[in-house]
Amino acid sequence: MIYKDASKFIHERVEDLIGRMTLQEKVAQLTCANSYGGETVYDTRHGKLKDGIGTISYLNDSLTGDNKKDKETIKGIQKFLVEETRLGIPALFHSEGIAGAQIPGATTFPQSLNLASAWEPALAQKMGEVVKKQLRAYGFKAVHSPLFDLGRDPRFGRIGETYGEDPYLVAQMGVAFVKGVQGDHEIMAAAKHFVGYGNAEGGRGGGEQQVDERRLLDSYCFPFEAAIHEADVKAIMNSYGILNDQAVSTSKWLLTDILRDKLGFNGLVVADYGSITHATLRYRVAEDHKEAGILALKAGLDVEQPGNQCYQHLIKAVESGELEEAYIDNSVRRVLETKFRLGLFENPYDDGDFFYEIKKAENVELSREIAEKSMVLVKNEDNILPLKKSLKVALIGPASDTKTNFFGGYSSVGSASTRSSDFDKSEEDSFLRMLYTGAITDDKESLKSMGIEFDDQPTPEQREIIMNMIRQNLASEDSSKRVYKTNEEFVQMFYPDCKSVKDVLEKELGKEHVLHAKGCNISKPIDRGIEAVKAVVQQADIVIAVLGGKESMIDPEATCGENKDNHNIGLENSQLEMMAEVFKLNKPVISIIVDGRPLPTPLVSEYSKAVLYSWLPAQSGAEAIMNILTGQKNPSGKLPVTIVKEAGQIPMYNSRLPLYVEMNEWAEYIDPTQNKPLYPFGHGLSYTQFEYGDLEHDRSVQVDGELNILFKLSNVGQIAGDEVVQVYIRDRVSSVARPVKQLVGFARISLDINETKKVSFKVNMKQLAFHDLNMNQVVEPGNMEVFIGASSQDIRLKGTFEIIGEKTIVERKAFSSNVTITEL
User: Fold this and answer.
1) Among 570, 425, 356, 395, which residue's Cα sits nearest to residue 57?
2) Model confidence over 769-801: pLDDT tens digits?
3) Which of 379, 496, 532, 625 is deepest in the core (most CB within 10 A)?
4) Which region holds residue 307: left if phi is over 0, alpha if psi is between -120 and 50, else beta?
5) Coil, strand or helix: which one is 297?
6) What does each C-alpha distance from 25 to 19, 30, 332 come to in angstroms?
7) Is the peptide bond before 94 cis (omega within 30 degrees of 0)?
8) 584 Cβ contact list (under 8 Å, min separation 6)
9) What is the average pLDDT across 107-124?
10) 327 φ/ψ angles, rounded to the nearest 5 degrees
């Protein structure tokens, strides 16, 4: 058979296989089996998987903590598909990977906002390579990562999963991660969420978005377009929500006209969990699940996930003449082509030694390196840091003696107690629906004995009672399968070397120099907690406050995460009340913010001597924090987002359109203190000082040419350090309004004491392409300004140049500049 012959071209293999498939087998390739414990899929394989399956969701409730058992379950499911179904088509098992492989014991990495704060794409690529090896060694050949959403609203619960606010920075970090995780056709990455998901009105993830097509193409689509053409990303996941009044999951305009025809994507489009059902259950653009499935498939959405609530009806739709089979064939081709390119037919099982991979010391070192390079020191008054070891320290705050707060909601730790059904946003979870149907029919008498009586259907109140009973039973069964009970126990079991800030501080300074009082929980006070804090502060020379929130989709104390959008973008009141009392004691305070969101901290920022954003630094987070505080590592992170002062300022982001004559003016609020952000995009301090000088650049550049920029960077301080240099360009006059500053290049540069390096950038003018009044993508001639600095506001060098020639229509933008660092 041609499709089993690896020597044949992929196109030949695909067409041969499609020609052998029944309609049922084709549709099966467009659906997903949700594991719900893994064994459920395995135990029902003869019925559920008899026609094969496209993908299999094997998320956290599948992972019992017994890795050998879970790996065997994956292998058993795949073995059935390969050896016992008619055509032997293997499934594509998928997991998550933005903070490391979502597997117990796999290396956990700082979350995406950390990576972006490091401004070093090479780190993202190295991380992706580790994630790839660990996923493949477990049996996964697909990963639902990374996010290419722009993070411009701190109310959005998942902003910590983004690479920040700027399209260029997001593209650079995301492309690097995709290159690392996909390798040489080894893993299928899924760039998500196409498109605009993170920027819904009010910060409500998956809500309504109104974005004009020019902004959509020039800003929100740019990172995806870069991933398509720079990293050959194999899959793209649609977003939840409504964009310009269209449900994204059923929008041909978005999923075909823009994604495929305009952006040039020819890979696989997979559904975010339950998003197709939203067309009927939420947005009411489809009459029922069948119509939603037909609309989504015709729009260009190839695979429904995590089940088949809608696509199961495609068979009848073809048989009734409502859908042409050609639509199904087109999507099946993309599924099969992906599987062939991944070598799944030749090697459908795990590839590598998972237990060897997770023991590599260099992986832990990489995680710590990312954590250290991503921490952003935004204030250091009187050079209070680095910390002097002779001091007696009062350690306070809800994150001062905890480990789980260091991990993101999509990390193995953050999602340890999360069920696959928690990821499913279908509203009508097929598994729960099945159990509910069984309960009100087969178990009707049992319900009656419990006082739940009904004739035909339960009342809404009774339905809720029954559903709660089902959920409780599932939770009970689930925990009985797991070798751990809580996230804290999970950390102790799989990451025993993970430390709290208290652990590392006591080791570094000696227990006798550390006085600890938690003071409060994340969002609730502790009885006499503030009194305990005041007592230790009064005895101390200096205070270290470890503050922030909790990212999780299920934790009761969660302040952010999926389905956890939060209108309060600052610290919770319990922490603010504690800190207000601490500041009254007039002791120097160092505040550390541990959170997935860019929390504005006006009170803390004003009265603390130093403020450090650590974001979510993962398993080596405490050591990384301590290395920064003590000066063993020089802080070098830069903000990938603009940090506002309060929610009323949203949105504030660097590449905004001009409002006033002066480019650094943001608003005209009555209160002048609200007219600028708390901290600007790109800001971050060091323990040393850098000087920029000797700028040289082209004075004119052809519309199809490159701008050459050359300058010198010197370390004039007392210790070695890294500086992140940033290059921005401003169009002085254009046919449509353009950003006040457009980030076009950056580089992280290491310098010893008194060392100087020459830095040169080549900026392709196609990086400046935009859609004009006629919606043509063009490069326009005209006068431009170039800015080079340590942040978007801390500009050290300026220049002007002219783009000369005729206005030129370009098919594709340039996605990155080239930088060369030369030692002098």
Assistant:
1) 425
2) 999 999 999 999 999 999 999 999 999 999 999
3) 625
4) beta
5) helix
6) 11, 9, 10
7) no
8) none
9) 98
10) -65, -40
Which residue in the block uniquely carries the two structure tokens 């009082």? 517
Cβ–Cβ < 8 Å for 305, 273: yes
Q: Look up residue 357 and give its amino acid.
A: E
Distance CA 366, CA 368 (A): 5
| The residue to which tokens 């292998």 are assigned | 75
Residues forming beta bridges with residue 691, ordered by sequence position: 714
How far, in Å, CA of 625 to CA of 645, rounded? Answer: 24
Question: How far is 591 from 576, CA to CA, in rounded Å?
Answer: 12
Whether the CA torsion 647, 653, 656, 658 is positive or negative: it is positive
**Residue 156: how many other CB atoms lie within 10 Å:** 29
**Domains of the chain as residue ranges with CATH:** 24-357 (3.20.20.300), 375-412+496-636 (3.40.50.1700), 420-489 (no CATH), 690-823 (2.60.40.10)
Neighbours of 324 (CB within 10 A): 12
Two tokens, residue 78: 């795949």
The DSSP call for residue 664 is T
Helix axes 573-583, 529-539, angle to 10 degrees: 30
Q: What are phi and psi of 18, to 5 degrees?
A: -60, -40
Say how far residue 824 (Cα) sits from the centre of its chain.
39
Q: Report the greatest alpha carbon distance in the chain.
A: 86
User: Tokens standing for 676?
Assistant: 């600028």
C-alpha to C-alpha distance for 159 and 98, rounded to whole angstroms: 13
Residues contacting residue 492 through CB under 8 Å, at least 6 positions apart: none
CA triple 653-658-664, angle to 5 deg? 65
pLDDT tens per residue, range 374-393? 999 999 999 999 998 889 99
Question: What pTM, to 2 d.p., does this model score?
Answer: 0.95
pLDDT tens-digit profile of 134-169?
999 999 999 999 999 999 999 999 999 999 999 999
Element (H, E) at 531: helix 529-539
**Number of neighbouring beta carbons within 10 Å of residue 816:** 17
Give the distance, in angstroms, between the CA of residue 4 and the centroid of all CA atoms in the same chain: 37
- In this predicted structure, what is the pLDDT of residue 550? 96
Convert 205-230 to b/e letters by CB count within 10 Å (16 or more is b).
Answer: bbbebebeebebbbbbbbbbbbbbbb
CA distance 712 to 691: 8
